[in-house]
UniProtKB/TrEMBL annotation, chains A, B:
Name of the top EC class for this enzyme: transferase
Pathway recorded for this protein: Nucleotide-sugar biosynthesis; UDP-N-acetyl-alpha-D-glucosamine biosynthesis; N-acetyl-alpha-D-glucosamine 1-phosphate from alpha-D-glucosamine 6-phosphate (route I): step 1/2
Record-level GO BP terms: UDP-N-acetylglucosamine biosynthetic process
Sequence similarity: Belongs to the acetyltransferase family. GNA1 subfamily.
Keywords: Acyltransferase, Transferase
Protein name (database record): Glucosamine 6-phosphate N-acetyltransferase
Length: 195, 195
């Protein structure tokens, strides 16, 4: 990809938001201390998803999480534009600058409500970090980044659907399985329809 | 409210969508059989939220669910317009036409994703039916309505955060607490910030 092409790339959301987050408000402990601005290695970068990330392996990273299907670059760009226009999608990635590759991602989605004084609540979705980058606290880093971002954006809460084996991890970051109210239930439809 | 004013009201989404739902695809059983088009009483109406519902007690119904705070009619209308512009909010209500009052509500929110071939998934939020209308299957009716709507709109799954005491209810409608993956975890922020 030429540097000229890179300059034409769009961010999904304003990258300066990531400079404003207060990691020290989070109960998460990092050892050694890292933040989204200083992620521990000079060749790691935490930033919003960019329109060129199709070519940096963004979908390959997501495929470590679940089924992706066949997605062309045009389909990716259409979905990117749709999310950007709606304005409530904060897909945040970690890039390995040495390889020009996306190695982790987490999505914050903001939902507008009437309850809580027309409040906004946050959903944490699609968290994944490349297996080969273990031991660098990057899972915690990307989750705390979007968790702090949701607070900065004024959400009153953030929640996620969580596998049993990840409960301890999310507890260490400040998430709670509230007694009597911590079940996630799902209905999967047979096939796609009309949207 | 004059009939002239009623004519000026906006629907949050196209009400004809509710005519197209196939209740018989749902595993939910109704006895006697009712649907969103024929909700069992001639004075009950299932429909999208309308801009005039502030004056029909919509917020009072939500207050049976959780804290609402002080919301002026202007704030309500601003949020309504915001949801309508974003296009992915399907707040669906039950009105008692005798009293011109909203007596139940459930919200379907559609989230756009990259995974599952740029699929859409659905969130079920803020389900409430007035206590004094028990025994009319209205809780099941409003949940099945938005569940069928999400399928019609092409979502690949719908999920919700569920209290322990409601697990059996949602199972009867086809929702599953998937083994090893049915936890909901939440982080509540101290105060609102900057959005």
């Amino acid at each position: 990809m030429s540097s000229n092409k890179e300059e034409q790339e769009l961010y999904l959301y304003d990258p300066s938001l990531l400079l404003k987050l207060d990691f020290y408000r989070s109960p998460a402990k990092f050892n050694p201390p890292i933040t989204c601005v200083a992620p521990g290695e000079p060749w790691l970068k935490v930033r919003p998803l960019k329109s060129g990330d199709y070519r940096r392996g963004f979908l390959q990273i997501l495929s470590q999480l679940t089924s992706i299907g066949e997605i062309s670059e045009v389909q990716f760009l259409n979905r990117f534009a749709e999310m950007r226009a709606k304005g409530d999608y904060y897909v945040t990635v970690i890039e390995d600058l040495r390889k020009n590759k996306i190695i982790g991602s987490a999505t914050l989605v903001i939902e507008r409500k009437f309850i809580h004084s027309c409040g906004n609540r946050a959903h944490l979705e699609d968290v994944v970090v490349d297996d080969t980058y273990r031991g660098k606290q990057l899972g915690k880093l990307i989750v705390v980044t979007v968790t702090c971002l949701a607070e900065y954006l004024g959400c009153y809460k953030m929640s996620l659907e969580c596998k049993d084996k990840l409960i301890a991890f999310y507890r260490s970051i400040g998430y709670v399985d509230e007694p009597g109210n911590s079940n996630s239930m799902t209905l999967r439809y047979d096939k796609q329809a009309n949207l």
